[in-house]
Amino acid sequence: MSSIEQVLDTEFYLKEVIAKGKFIRMSPTKVERVLNQIRGKSFAEASKILTFMPYKSCETINKILVSAASNAKNKYNLAKKDLIIITAFVDKGPTLKRFRPRSQGRGFRIQKPTCHITLLLSPVE
C-alpha cells in the first residue's frame, strides 16, 4: 500500500464537497452580498438565513447549497447537520449584450451580467 493510499484511508482526511452553479443570470456583486452572510455557517443556519432574506439570489444560492449537501450524502454518507460552509465565492461570467431602441433611431446597449457560484462544504471537526 502506497503512502497516498494510507492517507486516503485515514479518518483524518477531510472530505470536502463542492457544488457549482454556472451561467446564472444575476449580477456577481448582488450575489456576493448574500454569500458574505452565509460564509462559515452550518448548513441548517445558512438555509434559514437564505429562506428569510429578501433578495432574488437567495433562492438560487439555496438550491446550490442543497445540491452540495446531497453531494455530501451520496459521496461520503455525511449528514446535513454535520456540514459547514468553508468557502463561498462568486466569479463573473460572460455578459449578454442586448440593444434597446431609443429615440431618433438610436440603439441603446444593455448588458446582462451572469455569474458562477461555488460553494465548498466540509464536515465539522
Layout: helices, strands, pairs:
Layout (H helix, E strand, L loop, with lengths): L2 H7 L7 E8 L3 H11 L4 H10 L4 H20 L6 E10 L3 E6 L5 E6 L2 E9 L2
Antiparallel strand pairs: 1-5, 2-5, 3-4
Description:
This protein has 125 residues and is an alpha+beta fold. The protein has a single domain (15-123), classed as Alpha-Beta Complex (Ribosomal Protein L22, Chain A), CATH 3.90.470. It contains 4 helices and 5 strands, in the order αβαααββββ. It has a 3-stranded antiparallel β-sheet. A hairpin with a 5-residue loop joins β3 and β4. The mean pLDDT is 89.
Short description:
The chain is of the alpha+beta class.
Features of this protein?
4 helices, Ribosomal Protein L22, Chain A, 125 residues, alpha+beta
Residue stretches low in confidence (pLDDT < 50, at least 5 long) are none
CATH class placement: Alpha Beta
Helix content: 25-40%
CATH topology, anyone?
Answer: Ribosomal Protein L22, Chain A
Given the C-alpha coordinates, what overall shape results?
elongated
- Total of DSSP H or I helical runs spanning 4+ residues: 4
Strand content: 25-35%
The termini sit apart by 27 Å
| Sheet/helix structural class | alpha+beta
The total beta strand count reads 5
